[in-house]
C-alpha cells in the first residue's frame, strides 16, 4: 500500500509539473516523411510497460565534417592520421552538463534516480516506465501498427520536451515492451535489400574455361572486371588487411555455390569460406534455400572473395532468425561507443536484443565485438522517407566516426533509378507518402546512400556488342543505377563544385515538385562499377544478375587491394575516400561515364554527363592510376 501511495504521489507531482511546463514543451521527434506502409491497429494498451531511450546530444557534432576532412582530404597536413576508437568516443561523448540537465528534468518529472540508466558511453539515458507515464513526460501517444498478418509493432510519435532541455536531447526512442507484457514483434527487415534481378544463363553458353574477354557484354565475370578497371594488384600483406561484407539474417550463402563459382573463376579458392562474425545471433541459415534467401549472400561473397584472394573476407552476419537486424546492429558490433543500454536500437528499423521470443538471441546485444574493418560493404538500403530525421542523422554521424578511425564505408545506391525500392515514388507536393508503383510522382531517394559520410556506389554496364576496351554507360538493363538528391542531408563541401557544375551545365528538366532541386543537399552516387550481366552461382546453377549489389563489392575489393599496397609500405588505410575522388586532380583515376540515365517515377530520370552526375557519380575506377596516386599520399 505504501508503494502504491508513493507511486500515486509521484504521478500527481509529475502531472502538476507537466501542466505547469506544457506551454514551453516543443516538438522533438519527427519523420522526414510519414510512411503509409503500416496500418494502425489500435492504441497501445495502457497497462503495458515500455522502455524510453533518450539519446543525449553529443559534443562537437557541429564540427564533425571538418574533423573528418582533416584526416581524409589529401591536401590536409593531417591526412591519414586516423583516430583511435577511444579518442573518437571521448571527443564526441555528451558533456557532463548535458547528462545533468536531462537527469534533472527526469527526476523533477517524478522518476527516482535509481530508475535512470546511463549507458557506458554516456550517450543514452534509459527509463523503464509505462504507457501513461510516457504521455505525461513527452506528450506522446503510442499506437500498435500491423506490419503483416500476425505481426505488429509499436510506434510513438510527436514527442515533446521542455524548451530548457531541448538542446541536450538528440533523439528519443521507445524500444521494446517488457517480458511481463509481451507484444508480438515482427521481423525487423525494414531496410529493403537492394534487389538484384536475375535470369538463367542462355543455353549454349559455357562459362568454364572462357579463353578471352570477347563476351563480357553478355556475361560479366571477375576476369572482365579486372580488365575493365585495371585490377592488377597482388596482395602483399593479406593478414594485416580486413574487408567485411554485411548480410542480414535470413539472407545467407551456400558453400556449394561458392565452390561452383570458384571452380570456374578462382580455382584456388574452392572450399574457402568467409570468416564469420555473428552479430546478435546472426547465423548462416540453411533451412531456406532459394534465390530469395541465398541470392544476395552468394553474389556478395563470390565477388568480394574472388577479387581480393588471398585476403580473407569477414562476413558480418547480423540478426537472429526471429527478428533479424538493421543498420544500427552491425554498427553496434564494430563500435562499442554506439551501443546503448539494453538494446536501444530503433525497433522500427533494427533488431532489439536480447530477443526473448522462442528461438531468439536471448543474450546481450553484440556491442563492440570486433574492431572496425578497414573496408565495409553493404548491399542493402531503405527508402530515405522511411527514416526519422533523428535516426538518419545519428546513424550518419556514426559513419563519420568510422571514417575518422580509417574505415571505408560503401553502400549500394539502389536499383530503381530515381524511384525507391520496388519502383515506389512519393506523392507530389507532400513529399511524404509512397504511391502505387508506375504512377509517377516525386523521386524517392535511398538511405544510407544519401548520408554524406559514406560512399554510395551506382551501377554501369558494358553496352551490347561492345568490349571491355570501350566506354561503359549507366546500367539500363533490368536495373537502373540509383541516384538523385536527399530530402534530409545538406550538401557536403567536398561535392559542392561538382554538383553545382552538373546542375548548371546539365540542368535536369524537372521542378521542385519532383525532386529537391535547391542545389543545397547531398547528391549521390559518388562513383560506380559494373552491375549488369553479372554471372553468379546460385542454388547449384550459374545465372545472370543485375544491380548495385555487385557494384559495391567491386569497389570494396579495389579499396581493399589499395589498402594492402599502402599497408605493405608502412602507410595507413585510405579511410573515407569522398573528399579525394571529387578533386579535379584525381579525375584521371576514373573513367567518366557520359551516356545512359536512371529512369523512374514515370520519367527518364537524370542523365549521365561529363564530370560528376547523379547516375554514375564521378565514374568507374582506373585502379592502376588510383593506386599510384594513393601511394604518393602519406
Automatic annotation (TrEMBL):
Hydrolase among keywords:
yes
Intracellular or extracellular location(s):
Secreted, Extracellular space
List the PROSITE patterns: SEDOLISIN
Q: Which UniProt keywords apply?
A: Calcium, Hydrolase, Metal-binding, Protease, Serine protease, Signal, Zymogen
Question: What are the GO cellular component annotations?
Answer: extracellular region
Protein's organism: Russula ochroleuca
| Single GO MF annotation | serine-type endopeptidase activity
Question: What residue ranges are annotated as transmembrane?
Answer: none
In Swiss-Prot or TrEMBL terms, this protein is called: Subtilisin-like protein
- One GO BP annotation of this record: proteolysis
Q: Which SUPFAM superfamilies match?
A: Protease propeptides/inhibitors (SSF54897), Subtilisin-like (SSF52743)
Q: Which InterPro entries match?
A: Peptidase_S8/S53_dom_sf (IPR036852), S53_propep (IPR015366), Sedolisin_dom (IPR030400), Tripeptidyl-peptidase_I (IPR050819)
Instruction: Note whether Protease occurs among the keywords.
Output: yes
